[in-house]
TrEMBL record:
Native source species: marine metagenome
SUPFAM superfamilies noted in UniProt: NAD(P)-binding Rossmann-fold domains (SSF51735)
UniProt cross-references to Pfam families, sorted A to Z: Epimerase
InterPro entries: Epimerase_deHydtase (IPR001509), NAD(P)-bd_dom_sf (IPR036291)
Domain NAD-dependent epimerase/dehydratase intervals: 33-97
Protein's name according to its UniProt entry: NAD-dependent epimerase/dehydratase domain-containing protein
Length: 107
């Protein structure tokens, strides 16, 4: 039985704790993982989960209008890039990554 979730901290800990199946899946990923729009609702916990599951390199890209999200991700082991994805030149300057997760939305 899962532990009782009594706080946001408990929830994040539960969400970022990789199962054996997640660890296995991540171990089979070749190359870096880049998450576009990492500072949104799902991005921070997904990025931390990937790091905790053993991903070799996780790159999180966002505008990071909230600097605390950027600091949180860096502390979790995510390499961050602050940029506006709506600017084509910014997109072209991103490092190559064979695995891209698109979580960016337009408000």
């Amino acid at each position: 039985m899962s532990p009782c979730i009594e706080s946001e901290t408990d929830l994040v800990a539960q969400m970022t704790n990789p199962s054996p199946a997640v660890r296995k899946a991540v171990s089979e990923v070749d190359g870096d993982i880049m998450i576009l729009g990492v500072a949104g609702k799902m991005g921070p916990t997904l990025a931390e989960l990937l790091v905790r599951a053993g991903a070799k390199r996780v790159i999180g890209v966002s505008r990071f209008s909230d600097e605390t999200q950027k600091a949180y991700l860096e502390q979790a082991g995510v390499e961050t890039i602050k940029t506006d994805l709506l600017n084509e030149e910014n997109l072209e300057s991103l490092p190559h990554a064979p695995n891209i997760m698109l979580l960016a939305g337009y408000k």
